[in-house]
Amino acid sequence: VIFSDSNEASIKVAEEIAALIRKKQAADKQCVLGLATGSSPLRVYEELVRMHKEEGLSFSNVVTFNLDEYLPMEKENRQSYWYFMHENLFDHIDIPKENINIPDGTVEGDAVIDYCLSYEEEIKKHGGLDFQLLGIGRTGHVGFNEPGSHYNSGTRVITLDYITRVDAGPAFFGIDNVPRKAITMGIATVRNAKRIVLLAWGQNKAEIIQETIEGEISSAVPATYLQEHKNCTFVLDTGAGNLL
Ligand code: GLP
Asked: Which of 6, 176, 198, 239 is geometrically suited to a Cys-Cys bond with 134, CB 3.0 to 4.6 A?
């Protein structure tokens, strides 16, 4: 779906998420959301916070699983995805703290292998993701599933692509400060979500969006795997949809 502006598009996506939360609430069920960081979902989070404050939208039945986190990364670090999520969403809504799941960037050594398996297990224990929000990186990554990521991959440690580290450089005051690794949900973790919405704004995403939607399905552009999902919508603005 191509919107004339990202603001209007973000409000529509926030409305869909709010409707799902309310539907689950009415059925006395938890709503399991997969969440993303980056600039793309910011306006969606802002709108959800507004709905909480002005319309009484409650997140008391919401459980969240974030896609990824840098490794190593301390929670309190301003560049952490933990910090990002609290600053832009969690600190402003009534979600119970124990319902928030973000990959832990402080796990050391081989313990990270078991940690990733337990993250995956926890998602399964909750019955899987009801809704997964995604952005897209210029390498075609979703979460941090860089080119080469396997269709059946689960939550694991990944080595970041050079382009991804270049793009993250300004936030870290230089590429040398960008971690080389990250923990990310896998392609299979994302594919198993019942509903997926991928957001992309602006002309600099136009090329990767064209490859993702019109290109051949391939691990070279991991986001192309989404073509096979039965309930996935790409929500774009005219810039990002420019080459379609
Ligand atoms: C990072 C995140 C991705 C995100 C991407 C794009 O690499 N790990 O999940 O989609 O950035 O970010 P932006 O939305 O700022 O373009």
From this structure: 198
